[in-house]
Amino acid sequence: MAKVNFFLKEPNSKQPTLIYLRFIFNGQVLKFSTGEKILPKQWNSDNQRAVKNYTGFSPLNDLLNSMSETVLASYRNRLSVKKEVTPEFLKNELLISLSKSTSTPKGFFTVLEEYISIKQGKLTSNYLKKVTTLKNHLKEFERSKKFKLSFSKIDLNFYDSFTSYLMNDRNQLNNTIGTNISVFKTFLIWATGRGHNSNMKFKDKEFKAAKQEGDIIYLTEPELMRIFELDLSGNQRLSNVRDSFCFSCFTGLRFSDVAKIRQENVIEDEIHLITTKTKSSVRIPLNDFAKDILTRNDFKIPVISNQKTNAYLKELGQLAEISEPVLITKFRGSEGIEKREPKFNFLSSHTGRRTFVTLSLEKGMRAETVMEITGHKSYKMFKKYIKITDRIKKIEMNKVWSREPMLKVVG
User: Fold this and answer.
1) Do 32 and 166 contact (CB within 8 A), yes or no?
2) How far, in Å, are 36, 73, 107, 192, 362 from residue 42 at the CA level?
């Protein structure tokens, strides 16, 4: 059986050495230099590819895979038409293939558009919106700063210029800038893996998606129950929003997942669901409050757009007198920007999930159990949702340092 192999010219070298392709067929041998070099310690001789900790391993391995496919396809096609196959013929086919792949590299924005197109239906609409927003910012940055963007120009100088532009020209806060950089790096990893980019400077530790921990807005139990028990019999619009929001507060589900709930998702008083964002499976026991909401909505909770939900939640919060003054501090660079408003003005669909986590911990549910319900795999990600309230601190302190248990141990 004809098979392509790759090997190093000098496998014991301490310096980068050439990678060769070898193809043995019909008693003949094709030996072809790929033009690529690598340190032997970064080469896996068993699978004949670069190891994963080699910078740029993905585009290199993609190139080797492509060359292997070219040789085999050319060999089989030649045999199918009963023509002679020679090393010279296969070498020429490789050269033509390499010339096509290197002569017309795709431009940066062409690849970015390709990424958005390919990811349609694979990523959430919210994330795709972030990618599109990033694209618009990059195009405006290129125009206003007269900076012709290409993969080769993405380095720390670009990073400094682009983040400065987002802060000073687009008036963005630190966390929003961090989101843009995070999305940008995800795209660059994808582009590198497909051979569009070989510039690895974006992996520098200073090329970072810096974010600062934000203020956590959640409802106290009395506030939640005031919204839950509001008489909205004359207002179906607010009643629907109240039910979808409170269901999130009582289950920890994201806004996008509440919209997916149907009768078939409820099995023996548990919600069984594949989450939209992480595609992970969760099983959530239904408490009495969540059951009430499901029952009165015939197991199909009405959900409208996120934008309208957030607007109506502020109206709901005001009706329920969730009006405690709240101070939110955000940062633009080193500048702290404070905003003090009634709490209802800060309510959003995401407040539901945060409320569930905080109140569950207050009531004594173990963090591991809460994480199982919310679908968090790491405590680092889960910690962002936690608001360690004074009540939680008192409960935990008295649980550990109560005088009575200590006396029982001594006795």
Assistant:
1) no
2) 13, 29, 30, 18, 51
Q: How confident is the model at residue 390 (pLDDT cuts 50, 70, 90)?
A: low
**What global pTM score does this model have?**
0.60
pLDDT (mean) for 179-202: 91
Please answer whether residues 12 and 1 qualify as being in contact, where contact means their C-beta atoms are separated by less than 8 angstroms: no
Residue 75, token pair as written in the block: 């060999």
Tokens of 253: 């589900």
Is the pLDDT at 386 greater than 70? The verdict is: no
Q: Which two tokens stand for residue 6?
A: 């790759």
Express each pLDDT in 145-165 by its tens digit. 999 999 999 999 999 999 999
- HSE at residue 231, side-chain half, CA atoms within 13 A, is 0
DSSP class per residue in 58-83: HHHHHHHHHHHHHHHHHHHHHHHTT-
Domains of the chain by range and CATH?
3-103 (no CATH), 108-203 (1.10.150), 221-385 (1.10.443.10)
CA distances to 76, 77, 408 from 82, rounded to whole Å, are: 10, 9, 93
> Quick check: 57 pLDDT over 70?
yes
Please count the other Cβ atoms lying within 10 Å of the Cβ belonging to residue 23.
23
The reported pLDDT for the residue numbered 207 is 95
Q: Which of 217-226, 301-310, 364-373, 400-409 has the lowest mean pLDDT?
A: 400-409
pLDDT digits (tens, 9 = 90+) for 10-37: 999 999 999 999 999 988 999 999 988 9
**In the numeric block, which tokens belong to residue 19?**
């990678």
Beta bridge partners of 29: 24
Reading the block at residue 371, the tokens are: 């994480």
Task: Give the 3-state secondary structure of 226-291.
Answer: HHHCCCCCCCHHHHHHHHHHHHHHHHCCCHHHHCCCCHHHEECCEEEEECCCCCCEEEEECCHHHH
Residue keyed to tokens 């109240």: 242
Give CA separation, 244 vs 238, 254, 319, 327, 351, in Å: 10, 10, 17, 27, 12
C-alpha 279/C-alpha 174 separation (Å) is 29
Residue 212: which residues within 8 A CB-CB, separation 6 or more?
174, 175, 331
Mean pLDDT across the chain, nearest whole number? Answer: 88
